[in-house]
Amino acid sequence: MSLKKIGLVVKADKKARRRADEFEAWLHSRGLATLRQECALPQRRGFGPQRDLAPVDLDCVFVMGGDGTFLSAARWIGEQTIPILGVKFGEVGFLAGTAEENLFAVAELILTKGFVTRPRMRLLVEVVREGRELACETVLNDVVINRGTLARLADIETSINDLYLTTYRADGLIVATPTGSTAYSLAAGGPVIHPQVPGIIMTPICPFTLTNRPLIVPHSACIKIRLEKKASDIMLTFDGQAGFEIRDSDTIIIRQSPHDLNLICIPGQDYFDVLKTKLSWSGGRI
Question: What residues act catalytically?
Answer without folding.
Answer: 67
